[in-house]
Write a structure and sequence with these properties.
This protein is of the alpha+beta class and 463 residues long. The chain is built from eleven helices and 34 strands.
Length: 463
């Protein structure tokens, strides 16, 4: 950083050696003749060839160094944190000036109880001017408008310097639906078909969380021995504490059984191909619960398929087809005769969140094929049918299915945004024979809240 002329006198060399003792500085000196200037002899101040050293501060050519903080050409550096033209750089993470203000966790800007910002500014002219202190969780800074506050360096710091309600970070990634935390599966195995008992699931908060986290991870979870509640949804509302069912046109809890002349294919005895529910809804609930109330028929085995595993294969093998599935809208409808059910939606089969798979909408029983034809040009339809057929050739492979004969007391929760469910055809051999399944939906957000929130737990944060 510093460059001096080569000394030509022993006196100059000794003075420079004294300078070198400050902060381990080793100068390269050449071309200095004679002794030091007279003013360099002032107490506490040493000056040589434009370099001033006083009270541990070195200044040369506009560069100041003190307590490990270096300032040069408008860039300030302390403990690896730098203020740059665009913002602040910390351990490889770049923050814009406007972002630093939005991240301020001082008591004026941020409420540590509600975890919400109290003051918000969009003034792009406000800039970080000084780094005051760097600790494990925070960078203490001053902005150009005079405000002084704290920028978090990690997740703990993001909650502000006070007691805050904790969250279980070990479940955070999977609760956010990030593919990196999910387990895609292509066949039935011990993990995706793991059976939890009712007593185990409700034995403790941690056991309940682990059951729900398992569902989030695999898109499916099985529990047996659930009491025969008058209202099946008491299992989610009371035992799991994830709230009451979402209201749909099928009532909060849909009673699925054979109903001659019913207004839904699920009320027949026919095989139901794998599908997701409610694709005709603008924003369908993602958690779907099934419970078996009675099953005395022949056949009717239930099955489930992971679409994300199949779609990941499509993306790797035929990225062009995958792209079509994410962009070409398909038309879904629910409009049975002599009912007040009239729901329509137009969305692609695959929805992404960035590059992550987020949602699959796949229910060929409810597609509005005529609307698709009159709304989509011929070449696009050709590309879509080729892509959809390629994807369906994978999800319809028998080896991909988890298959299970549901019995009274069984509850299965599936990710309706990811896992297809269906059933084989069944046969009613007597008047008493019946297959009765109740199904209802819960918002993913309610399950996320149950998994992550921990009451009266505090993070130990520094100011």
């Amino acid at each position: 950083m510093f460059s001096l002329l080569k000394p030509k006198s022993a006196g100059c060399l000794r003075s420079l050696q004294q300078l070198a003792s400050i902060r381990g500085y080793t100068p390269q000196c050449r071309g200095i003749s004679g002794g030091l200037p007279e003013h360099s002899k002032r107490e506490g101040v040493r000056v040589t060839d434009g370099i001033r050293v006083t009270d541990g501060v070195r200044v040369t050519d506009g560069v100041r160094v003190t307590d490990g903080i270096r300032v040069t050409d408008g860039v300030r550096v302390t403990d690896g944190v730098r203020v740059t033209e665009s913002g602040v750089t910390d351990r490889g993470r770049d923050l814009l000036h406007v972002e630093t203000r939005h991240l301020c966790r001082c008591p004026v800007c941020y409420d540590t109880h509600s975890h919400q910002k109290l003051l918000v500014t969009y003034d792009k002219e406000v800039r970080v001017t000084d780094i005051l202190k760097v600790s494990d969780n925070y960078i203490s800074v001053r902005w150009s408008d005079g405000h002084q506050g704290l920028i978090p360096r990690n997740k703990a710091g993001a909650y502000g310097p006070a007691h805050v309600t904790s969250l279980l970070e070990k479940y955070y990634d999977v609760a956010m639906r990030w593919n990196s935390a999910q387990v895609f599966w292509t066949s039935q195995d011990e993990q995706n078909f793991k059976n939890f008992t009712y007593e185990e699931v409700v034995s403790s908060d941690e056991a309940t969380r682990e059951f729900l986290a398992h569902y989030m991870r695999y898109g499916i979870a099985f529990v047996s021995g659930v009491p025969n509640y008058t209202d099946p949804a008491d299992f989610t509302g009371h035992d799991l504490n994830v709230g009451r069912p979402s209201v749909t046109v099928f009532d909060p809890v849909d009673q699925v059984r054979y109903k001659p002349g019913g207004d839904n294919a699920a009320y027949t005895t026919l095989e139901l191909p794998g599908h997701t529910d409610l694709p005709f809804y603008n924003d369908s609930p993602s958690a779907q619960f099934f419970t078996c109330l009675k099953n005395t028929v022949q056949g009717g085995e239930a099955f489930w398929i992971d679409t994300f595993a199949a779609l990941q294969e499509v993306r790797e093998e035929r990225p062009d087809m995958f792209d079509v599935l994410t962009k070409v809208p398909v038309y879904f409808k629910l409009d049975p005769a002599k009912t007040l059910k009239n729901l329509y939606q137009s969305v692609p089969v695959v929805e992404l969140n960035g590059s992550d798979l987020r949602r699959t909408r796949d229910h060929m029983n409810t597609t509005d094929d005529f609307q698709f034809v009159i709304s989509t040009d011929l070449e696009t339809r050709k590309e879509w049918w080729a892509a959809y057929s390629y994807y369906k050739s994978k999800v319809e492979e028998e080896s991909r299915k988890i298959t299970h004969v549901m019995r009274p007391g069984d509850v299965i929760v599936t990710d309706n945004w990811r896992v297809l469910h269906g059933r084989k055809a069944f046969f009613v051999t007597s008047e008493e024979a019946q297959r009765h399944v109740a199904t209802w939906y819960i918002s993913w957000s309610h399950i996320q809240n149950r998994v992550l929130a921990v009451k009266d737990a505090f993070l130990d944060l520094e100011s």
